[in-house]
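Section: protein folds

Sequence with per-residue tokens
===
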Amino acid sequence: MLFILSWTLTLLFIWQSMGQSQITVTQTPSVKTVTPGENVVMSCKFTGWGLAWYQQKPGETPKLVIYQVNDRYGNSFSRFSGNGRSGGTDFTLTISGVQTEDIAHYYCQNLLWFISSTFHSLIL
């Protein structure tokens, strides 16, 4: 069984005290094919001081996976890890040994500005 993993870019606007700014969140790769058991790396690029990753399965509310760049939330996400440097620009979410239950939308969020991007996964 193969998974096709693809990114969808979301652009959001934020309000700063001096006016409105447009922030672009970049994620790579745009499409990736993996098999169960492989490691999957999702990237999120922007400047920020704190980052969270969320998982949202169809029909469910988003669940916090990683907070403060690399702190895992709870025991349910033991195969998930976050990487990056707070105040930096490059952040990743890695799923070790991807499984069918990992199929979901994944969102990265700058904790200060509510910038997010979405990650879509489909089973073939």
